[in-house]
């Protein structure tokens, strides 16, 4: 059952190298709005909303802001803002690296222009819908933290219909990532939460193949591209299929 999530490793490497900033209040608030709009406006009955609210609280967003975002998603709060739309963008970075971007926007033209500029300034190209998404699988991911008994993890993961897992044993993080079907994420999260400390549960695009990057110039531009995309308020998540390899 053991598996690997190289992109998660890349993001951890990148966080150390670039001191990557967390998501902005705007990004986290928009995730709450969409989650409330797509389901019921109750964290107990809406897993997507509950995870969005947990991330917002962890980032220090005030409760008033969270409640207002939930109300916007439920349609019970109107401040004249345009409705948010979920859009996926796809493109290529240097070295033929595939990049998948999930965005929430109230202005398609602005978002597309900002994303296109991020690609063009960093040696990449924004592509057509479907140009790289076939290289990714949409999965539910539960991130655990702390020391993990791998035998117990395997037992619980099998009981909860997980597909694979990866142990994380790094200087600044101990834990594991467990992968499952999108529809099974809440079930897996509940099972694991009874035995381990769950840091995060989310839907994520997982690359099914990787491009090894050994050139320092390509590495610089790829990491710069990731930063440029992630810094945009309209962008919620960025995934790419490169693996940094030290010479």
UniProtKB/TrEMBL annotation:
GO terms for cellular component: cytosol. One of its GO terms (molecular function) is DNA binding. GO terms for biological process: regulation of DNA-templated transcription. Keywords: Cytoplasm, DNA-binding, Transcription, Transcription regulation. InterPro entries: Integrase-like_N, TACO1_YebC-like_2nd/3rd_dom, TACO1_YebC_N, Transcrip_reg_TACO1-like, Transcrip_reg_TACO1-like_dom3, YebC-like. Residues 5-75 form the TACO1/YebC-like N-terminal domain. Residues 84-242 form the TACO1/YebC-like second and third domain. PANTHER family: TRANSCRIPTIONAL REGULATORY PROTEIN YEBC-RELATED (PTHR12532:SF6), TRANSLATIONAL ACTIVATOR OF CYTOCHROME C OXIDASE 1 (PTHR12532). The keyword Cytoplasm applies. Gene3D superfamilies: 1.10.10.200, 3.30.70.980. Belongs to the TACO1 family. It comes from the Bacteria. It holds the Pfam family Transcrip_reg. It is found in: Cytoplasm. This is Probable transcriptional regulatory protein Cyast_0445. The keyword DNA-binding applies. The lineage of its organism: Bacteria, Bacillati, Cyanobacteriota, Cyanophyceae, Oscillatoriophycideae.
